[in-house]
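pasting for ref
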Amino acid sequence: MSVATDPDTVGVNVPGIGVIPEDVVTALTTACDTPLRRLLLDPDTGAVLQVGASTYRPSERLRRAVRKRDRTCRFPSCAVKAERCDLDHVVTFPRGPTSEGNLVVLCRHHHRLKHHAGWSLTMTPQGVCTWTTPSGLEYVTDPFDYRTLAA
């Protein structure tokens, strides 16, 4: 199984079957702890270029790291504590890995908003999130700055 390389196709290409849409793969992988391994392949040679996370659900260590980085829901002006929030893949699994650079803390309300209301989210390697509204307005949120605790 591999992620489709055709830019017009979003999904997973299963040899002998074809492309399974991304939302179907997400539903299958979130319904249970299905172990998967994402492989990025060179379309010309078939060589493995990158190996992704093997599971949808993050480890306890990874959950702690993301919650410490974010401290609260990363939606603009939301103050729900990270411990009461979901961890969400910025780039949907399996296209995006289960890694600190692709996970963000979202309260249940804003998690749903991201997936069902037309908002989009990008995140830099430094953890800076850019939220884009359905009308194109952008809002930026930063990871928690622990230096503020020392003041």
